Structure formats: C-alpha cells, structure tokens
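Here we describe the complex-level prediction in full. Unlike the single-chain runs in Section 2.1, the two entities below were treated as one system.
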Amino acid sequence: MVASQTREGASPVDAGSLGIICGGGSLPLAVADAASRHGRRVVMFALRGFADGEVERYPCHWIVLGALGRFFRLLRQENCRDLVFIGSLTRPTFGRFRLGFRLDLATIRRLPRIARAFRGGDDHLLAGIARMIEDEGFRMLGAHEVAPEILLAEGALGTRAPTESDRVDIVRGLELLAATGPFDIGQAAVIAGRQVLAVEAIEGTDRMLERIVALRQEGRIRVPAGTGVLVKAPKPQQDRRFDLPTIGPETVEAVARAGLAGLAAVAGAAIVAEPQRLVQLAEARGVFVLGIKPAGAGA
Amino acid sequence: MVASQTREGASPVDAGSLGIICGGGSLPLAVADAASRHGRRVVMFALRGFADGEVERYPCHWIVLGALGRFFRLLRQENCRDLVFIGSLTRPTFGRFRLGFRLDLATIRRLPRIARAFRGGDDHLLAGIARMIEDEGFRMLGAHEVAPEILLAEGALGTRAPTESDRVDIVRGLELLAATGPFDIGQAAVIAGRQVLAVEAIEGTDRMLERIVALRQEGRIRVPAGTGVLVKAPKPQQDRRFDLPTIGPETVEAVARAGLAGLAAVAGAAIVAEPQRLVQLAEARGVFVLGIKPAGAGA
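The structure predicted for the assembly as a whole is:
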C-alpha cells in the first residue's frame, strides 16, 4: 500500500489508513505495531515537542499545535479517516497555545471554540478537541479499539499478588474514585491500612507518589513500608477513546519508591506501556501489579 | 474559686472547672479567655512538645502522652469533669507513642484499645481516644461549645467578597467535599475556573497549597493569579467536638501565596484563629475570607 489514494466512502472492511497522533513515550509505537499486525496501514502524526523520534519507523508527518489546516489536509492526503490519539502530552495553557505557535487560518477560525474547550477539566478539553476533529468528517477511535492488546488484563501481571489487607485497600480506593469521578479530577489515589493517604488532582500520579515518599520520610505515614496500594480507575463518564490511565515501568518504579505493596487498576480501562519491562521491574522491586475485574462484570 | 474540691454530681449550673487539653498554636488561649469571660474556671493541660508556654497564664499542668493515670488523677484533683481538646497536634505513630514515652499502668492497660484507635483515619483515632476518656466519667466538649465566638460566622470577614465565578468554584468545592467526606480524608480542596486543582488527604492544607504554588510556577495551572478558591468543610459524620477545621493568618498567607482569590469555609464548622490578624492580613494581601451558609440552613 502506498499513500495518497483518496478513498471517500470506503467500505467498513477497507477502512483506509489509520492516523496515529503521537504524544510522548513508547505507546504510539506499541499501538502502531499492533494495528499493523492487524493488517492496517499506519501513518504517524508526531506532535513536535512531545513525540519520540522513533515513531519515524512508520510513514510520519511532524505536526504542531496551531496548524489544524495543514493537519486536516495531511489526513485527507494520507486517506486517514480513522484517528487515534496516544502518548503523553503536558496540557498547554490556552495563552501558550495562542501565542507560542504560528496559527494557520483553520485554527484561527476555531479559536473561540478551542478557548471554550480550555475551560473546565481535562475531559472537557479532550472531548472538545475530538469533536472539532470529528466535525471535519474524521473518526476518533480509542487506541484500545485498534490495539486491544495494550489494555491491562484481569489478574496479576507477574508473580506477586496482593494480600487480603491490600485487597481491602483496593476496594476502598475504588469506592473513593467512584465518588470523585464526577468531578473530572485525577484517576488515582493511595490507600494504606484503610486510610486514604493521597488523592490525585491535576498534579498527576507521579507527583502524588513523590508526596508519599516525602510524607513517609517525615514520619507522617504510620503504616510500615511495603503496605498500601496505588489504585487507578477510569472516571465514570470518561470518554475512553483518549483518556485511559496508563501504567508503565515508571509507575512501578514510583510505587516501589513510595514504599507501597503494589498497584491496582481496572482491567480493560488502563493501558500498559512496555509490559515486559514493567513485569521485570515489578519482580525486581517486589511490588504487585493487578488488573481488577470491572464493577458489574459478574462473579 | 480554688482547685481540688471534688464535686461529683455537681449541678449543671455549677459544672466545675473546665480542663483544656492544649495542643499547639494560639487557640487554647483563645478558648480559655472566652470560657473565663463566660465565668468558667479554666485549668490548662498542656501537651509537652506541642503546647505553647504562654498557656501557663492559667493554672496549668504539663502532661505527656503515655501518662494517662496521672492525667486522670489531675483532672479529678482539679475538679474538671468537662474537657476540651484544642490546638494543633501532629499525629504520632503508634510505635512512637509506645516506645518514646515512659508509659504508666493506666496507659499500659489500655494499649490494645489505643492500638485499635490508631488504625483507620484521624476521625477514628480521635473518637477512640475521646471514648476512652469519657469511659472514665469525664465529658468531652467541643471548643465551640464553651467558646462559640471562636467559630467562623456567615458572610465575609473583612471587606473583600467573592466574585460570581468564585462562587461557582465554592459550590463545586462543597459538592466535592461532600462526596469525599465519607472517606475520612482531608477537609479541603482548591477549585479554580470550575476545575479541581487539588484535593487534601493526609498532607494537610498547607502542603496542598504549596503544591499549587509549585504547579503554578511550572505553568501547569492555566487560570491567572487571583483566581481560584480554597474550600474547607467539615466531614459529614465528623465528631465536631475535636476535629473542626481551623483557619488562621497562616491560612490566609498560604492562600495568597498560592495565587488564589480567597478561602471559603462552612460557617459554624470552622474555627478562626487570631481573627484580627487574619482580617488585617486578608486586606493587605487582597484575598477574601468567607463563611458559607451551611447546607440545609434555609434561605
């Protein structure tokens, strides 16, 4: 297959090429590899300043925020009706978005709409930008829809398993995250010995775990090292197409540094980055990594 | 009135002396002053390592954790049936509690019970210790029951008032804290432009606000300085006798440093430390301090 055949109205079976908007980290390549294995042609749209240079292993265009017109043109040229966004992306401020880049006409025309999307939580921002792209006739898919193998499966990754007391903490964490979900905040909390040690908001999981390290050094955490669980869950009304929580080797390392017993995330609702390295590290550091059966998924 | 008349079964009018168990900060003296003005004899029980030396302005016994027998004897000697605990107290670990002090017999006998109280959240710990004291025939009162003037009143303290957009953030903060309340975690959150920036757990309000300062410096907060509100509320099933949130001049200073518009706490459910200095500082720093009408208190 070569680029640039415009196939409007392609049959569902021949869905054209898959465009992957690449943020940082290894996940864009993992998704591209999986989609390729499933027989799909892949084109990378690498976000300058975020994406890793390795994504050029696939046909690749470097794109910048603020050049929507060029982006839409490239998508049509490459016959990419289906799009996936994957990878890490530090949230830009609207001011930086507006001033820091040379905006093309298509972007300027949409500025009021972009500004509206910037108000509210992350879900709101991502959903607003996705709608803008879909209004151009493209289809935003979740990375897991084109590469289901990147999702966390039920059960333990590796040989470590949670104790009974860890399981109590996991249940409490899930209950807490169910309560905070409607507020469009972080998707993680740390529970130890039934006490909630930390709740994630905009600081992110890494920073929350650093806080645990500091509080432990100061003697503010009374449970011994090796106790406590990082619990991650999707928000109840989250659009899973572009905001699934991710766990990777760095997560395992941060969990170990925070002196926790392990981490638990809802199966099917978290992406695993670099699974082999993750399991190796979990074994070496003695922490468990658990995929939890989703609520309402039966016994 | 002099000490040491044992008046068991004193009439409600002559309720005996009031024992104030003093943690750190200026509040123990504020409560003592108010209770004295209301005609009550006051005896301070100053917690060594926490209480300020100034509490010796009143009849005073220095007490240590781990000497419950002596504490109960002194209470009876001083005719203190009613007790208030007030002031800041870093939570000790159970290990430190057990090893760091010479324990008397009365304490050792209660160790299993104390250990049980140490499991679970702060509410659980305080409630457990209060029950232990009440089982000896004493009565634990809330500081606001003997000194209602220390509570935050409805309306603005000082001249600054919240804008309409601040009020939207306050409502969102109250809704969030109502959702997290059942989990016995922090009683505060920071909301700005409808987005939840931070949720307090065991790190405490000061530390949460320091996080806002850091995130702002890193450009991770997109609302301009002077936007956003610190919202504090009591937990739904909290025993208000000994765990009301406190706001003081340091809180105002931390709110200003975090670049927020102000702070709002539920009226009648927060204690104001050093009100004059607080108002002066709020005016100087241009932040509002608001007592919110409690939910269900009518229009």
